[in-house]
Protein 1
Amino acid sequence: MSTDEEKQKLLSSALIAAGIVVILWVVKAIEAAFGISLVSFGIQPLTAEGLKGIIFSPLIHGSMAHLISNSVPFFLLAAALFYYYRTHAWTIFLLSWLVTGFWTWIFARGSSYHIGASGVVYALATFHFVSGIIRKEPKLIAFTLLVTFLYGSFVWGIFPDFALKERISWESHLMGMIAGLVLAFTYRSIGPQRKVYEWPEEEDEDESNDQDNNSPQNTFTINYTPKEQSPDKD
């Protein structure tokens, strides 16, 4: 792939990710402009009403701080997904979105609404990280570690004590992590793979020498033509 094609691929991946993030911000802007709350479109566990949250909950955020904290890792992880896994990116993205939401709807308890894109963030981050380990691809692992560093509470977000203190949905985080793990193994044969270098086998030196010595080019004979003797003189 040429440099121009590589730049075009990177740009298009970033634009797709940015477009999705813009949708999150538009939803928040609508809430602010009309003075409404769309929290009821979140996931309410094990209720028929809460099923719509499987689709809509990642679009809804409780505050600007909540939205900002999700926007940066969401953008980076989505852009990487569309860059590295071009042909299957939308399938992996939608499955991360829907499977995380559905499992949260089944697993979570209580009457609270679960909102925010952090479950999808966990799914994508885990997908990239585990995919890097499976493929032994250092670039993928390094990228996800960078996002984890930027998204400081990533690991702690799956523990109930920390999540309840911070008023975040540890259930959606955990379900997202599991969904990303399953998807990484499911799609382990697609996307970037570790490069395997093959070196030509060297011939045994002695064998090579023997072959050279026995080759027709190095075999020659010398024919001697006897000189005719002159008669003896008296």
Note: The mean pLDDT is 81.
Protein 2
Amino acid sequence: MFNFCPSCASKKIKFEEGKVFRCPDCGFVYYHNIAAATGCIISVPSSDHLQVVRDGAERLLFLVRGKEPAVGKLDLPGGFVDVGEGALEGLYRELREEIGWTPPVPDGAGLSSVFRLFASFSNVYEYKNIKYNTCDMYFSVSAPGLRPEGLRLEQAEVAGVRFLKPEEIDFNQFAFESTKRAVKSYLRILD
């Protein structure tokens, strides 16, 4: 990441233990910590999905990635938590940005009353030749009545959405290993 010390421009900067940059010339120290990221499984009860489908199976909403990495692969709505945000605020913002939908929050209640944390995994997200080590936190929410036509997709990032029954999910089509693990955890599928 650093070829020169950002403080004194020394070429002697070292990356140690896979997490810290140290410059022996000026004493500069930089810990390359993880980035926080979220993902959300949005479950649509069967009786609410597309009105004509009443087969007793819930559908899960998946995004089709519209950009690299892993364009065309399945993903969950979510993304990086911005500076100044908690995980829930970041997830709520990402849902609004990516799919134009957010779950209703009851008056006087917080986001923790809406989302349920069910899994967390480490991940490596490579973007433009930079590897971001992430802590991915996965939440779930039920969305009765959510329909594809009620979504506004962020065209630069999302190529489409798919509402899939659990048995329709092709686990080889996931963009990221941590997302695949999260969906399996949600569905209680053991490897």
Note: The domain at 39-187 is CATH 3.90.79.10 (Nucleoside Triphosphate Pyrophosphohydrolase).
Protein 3
Amino acid sequence: MTFAFIRHGQTDWNRDDKLQGSSDIPLNAQGREQAHEAAGILADGGWEVVVSSPLARARETAKIIAHDLGLELGPSYPSLVERDYGPLEGQSSSETVARWPHRDYPGAESLDSVVSRGLAGLARVADDFRDRDVVIVAHGTIIRYTLAALAGRPLDAIRNGSISTFRLDGDRWEVLTVNGQPLVPLAGATDSAALAADPRGSAG
């Protein structure tokens, strides 16, 4: 099975550098355009179904992509919602990261929890759509740290509307691209599906 993780299109909070998290903020016009652009990139890729997080910005992105490509719009998965940033939601994202560079924000969901949810969500999608190639629309943090766990290495921040691909071969996950670019193997890297790696080392 091959999967594409797509980060939803831009919202006003993305544009204004606000931590979004579990807050249900809709797409803006630029975000809808990014969804159409992502669909164009995915065209002729053999995709069969689109699923998403239930948050409005992800669900609308999924609907646009499914419509543009003439694909089935599958269900939403609560396990794929964005990290809950608690009382920091709506605050400046860059200022928050500068104050807590390890992303250990007070009152926020832990990154370990985010990764556990992400992996559980992928397992559920894989079980629901056996042998089908699936587009999954979700959120920047859960995509970034779930893929980092699958790849066994830190990854850069995920851009709005970007496409990252990975596959499941038997019980082995392999990350192929991140933000539309091939994931270049690291010298001396461990198996790409080494889930024991700490995903919190990412600097981006």
Note: The radius of gyration is 16 Å.
